[in-house]
Amino acid sequence: MELKKIVEAILFSSSEPVKLTELSKITGKDKDEVLNAVNMLIEEYSSRDTSVEVIKVGDSYLMRIKPQYADYVEKFTVREFDRGTLRTLAVIAVKQPITLAKVARIRGNKCYDHVKKLVERGLVKAEKKGRSTILTTTEEFAIYFGLESSDPEKIKEALRKYFEGDEKP
């Protein structure tokens, strides 16, 4: 099916999840036809013994390396964030909503630079409440890490499962 190949090419070339409406617009096909093609790709990739998968992220779709192969691929890619920034992000994700002051107590004063980077990148939202700044993850966080939901409780649950070794997020 030509539509399936076109959708596959779009997902392969995109570094961000692609909305069904956008796929429909690009291909000139109605949403039901595109959804059928996407579902065929999801099924095809999950039935093959491959390191690549197509997943649903919110109302979008993403082709990515399966998490169990990410460590190998990471050796060939440039890191967007240093380990300290990622650790600060992990604290925010696991303990959200959390005050900036509490993150600083846990991670030290370097966290202020980390949080600034994370807010600029759109992975963390910083909201002023009185004299405190409350930090939470964003929808962009969920997209960046290939999570199905940006709901803070679902993110915490996915991280708990990951750290307990049950599954990769």
Can you describe this structure?
Helix content is 54%, strand content 17%. The protein is an alpha+beta fold and 169 residues long. It folds into two domains: 2-72, Winged helix-like DNA-binding domain superfamily/Winged helix DNA-binding domain (Arc Repressor Mutant, subunit A), CATH 1.10.10; 83-163, Orthogonal Bundle (Arc Repressor Mutant, subunit A). The chain has helices at residues 2-13, 20-27, 31-47, 70-74, 83-95, 100-107, 111-121, 139-144, 152-163; strands at residues 18-19, 52-57, 60-65, 98-99, 124-129, 132-137. The strands form two sheets. The chain has a three-stranded antiparallel sheet with strand order 1-3-2. Strands 4-6-5 form a three-stranded antiparallel sheet.
Describe this protein with a few key phrases.
169 residues, alpha+beta, Arc Repressor Mutant, subunit A, 2 domains, 3-stranded antiparallel β-sheet, 6 strands, 17% strand
Ranges where pLDDT stays below 50 over 5 or more residues in a row are none
Overall tally of domains: 2
Q: How do the SSEs run, as a string of H and E?
A: HEHHEEHHEHHEEHH
Would you count the extended β strands for me? 6
- CATH fold assignment of the largest domain: Arc Repressor Mutant, subunit A
How many helices? The count is 9
The level of helicity is: 40-55%
Overall shape: it is: elongated
Helix/strand class: alpha+beta
**What is the CATH C level class of the largest domain, in words?**
Mainly Alpha
Strand order of the largest sheet: 1-3-2
Task: Tell me the fraction of residues in β-strands, as a range.
Answer: 15-25%
What is the rounded Rg? 18 Å
Largest sheet: 3 strands, antiparallel
From the N-terminal CA to the C-terminal CA, the straight-line distance is: 31 Å
- CATH homologous superfamily classification of the largest domain: Winged helix-like DNA-binding domain superfamily/Winged helix DNA-binding domain
**Whole-number mean pLDDT:** 87
What is the CATH architecture descriptor of the largest domain? Orthogonal Bundle
